[in-house]
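This week, think about what follows.
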Amino acid sequence: MDLTSPRVIRDIQNKFGFTFKKGLGQNFLTSRDILTKIVDSLENETDVLEIGPGFGTLTAALAERMDKVVSVELDDRLLRVLEYTLGDFDNIKIVRGDVLKLDLRSLIKDEFGEKNVSVAANLPYYITTPVITRLLEERLPLNNIVVMVQKEVAERITASPSSKEYGAITLLCRYFCEPSIVTAVPASLFVPQPKVDSAVLKLRLLPKSAVSAEDEKLLFRVIKAAFSQRRKTLLNCMCSAFPVAKDKMSKILTEAGIEPSRRGETLSLDEFAHVSDNLIKILRQ
């Protein structure tokens, strides 16, 4: 069956008495072309962990090209639907659970062994940032993360310094991976149709962090502080976040090659690392 067909989606709804839950962000893709672009962007991957299969539209497209697809689904109501839509495949396993609570490292090891895999997902907008953050910070054995997200989120993650979209999530992603937008996806290509457009975002995991920081947690505290009050200077933001006198903080920034009057949105990831490494010397005194 063509799971991208609105008519087929309606038929499945009627067959199982399924209603979309707005609170779960259930919007199902109706474009075969976009599915192909998602699968192609996974390059030569053979094993994939999928998050949120819905009616199995992306799941089936993945299973046609992959050796194994393990898909995590939160909504119990969809388990019977997935048995129906994906019954012809023998290389798909559905795991019931919340991706934000499951032990993903153990799941990947149990299902795929010691090899690296990729993640594919049509993420509900409300969990996009928590899911991406968890996948990156836990340093799971991943090659790529290819996800459907709100267009504005994709633009923030791929933003350049000094742009209004540039922020803490941009730097988090650039620390762990190389982000790019695969394609834009208009709202009209979903059922039900969301109020905003989407984009397919690809995060290619780096073999090691993009910059070297003496204290990774401190680096991200510095980044968070810098964007806590975007209209304030970096100096004022840092003084609000850390127990360091203003003159000493000014010296820390200057020694890192940063003018204290700059705003956080103008700093590169490498510059933030310099600030963090200089700050740690003072904090340890």
DSSP finds twelve helices and nine strands in the chain.
